[in-house]
Amino acid sequence: MAEAMLQTINLTKSFAVRRGFFASRKMRLTALDRVSLSIEAGETLGLVGESGCGKSTLALTIMQLHEPTSGQVRFDGEDLSAMSPLELSHARRKMQMIYQDPYASLDPRMNVQEILVEPLVIHQIGTPQERTAKARELLDTVGLPYDSLGRFPSDFSGGQQQRIGIARALMLEPKMIICDEPVSSLDVSVQAQILNLLRDLQRDRDLTYLFISHNIAVTRYMSRRIGVMYLGRLAEIGPSEVIIERPLHPYTQALISAVPDPQPTDSRRSRRLSGDVPSPIERPSGCAFHPRCPIAQEICSQTEPALRELGPNHSVACHFARALPTPDSGAL
Q: 135, 213, 218, 266: which has the fewest Cβ within 10 Å?
């Protein structure tokens, strides 16, 4: 079995919030609730779910930009939460992020050269000449011309800005990159270019990815395994093709049925969910999905289901997990 590059163990993150008249009522918002997952070296784990399900909070907590409320993050065999600030700074050299909004992640007051060499300056790596040479090399790697170095982020399109963000993430030669919705703000044609670039970089540099997206089709293209999150917890996780072709959790089934089918047939009916995502401040008892679940029974509102393995490397948190009927059955 390949070595686990990243592990989260019962990772929980909650925030103090105030509600009520003059915001005097203190409450806790649980954004992550005991999330345990692992990513092997060289693989891509995709993470999908509706907005507000905790995907980005998970990314920031893994990076220790949010301090975990409880649980562990182990990267390359070491516990990040047990590190000193200096040790954590060194560990972050091996784990970088690509952000959803490329323009917001680039300092508009800095030109491209300053943006790219900044990580090397912070970590005191190389001479000024060596830093510039590396910046030029990585611009070529991501498909931008050398004369980009003297220009500013506002001079570039969204796709070009994201290429700059990718080049910056590569400057420290990381082992792992967390891609937090890296193409969601881009045009569809540009999305394909960026996704192919990320795949080429993974192949050429033996990178490990955590790929976060609300688009399950994009996630399928990028990932060997897919995890599905709902209200801060993992609902289902398994091999990509298994998750797409034979999902077991009702929430996963609904997400997949909502993807437009280029060759629709009467045998595939949309499984629309009723109601809205519950508030993470006032979480439902039992299974958090039960108020919207079409197969919920009494136990679902009383007992929280454990994430249990129901197939090879395929785990589901549902009391009544079941495979989707085949197209021939007329249900999907």
A: 266
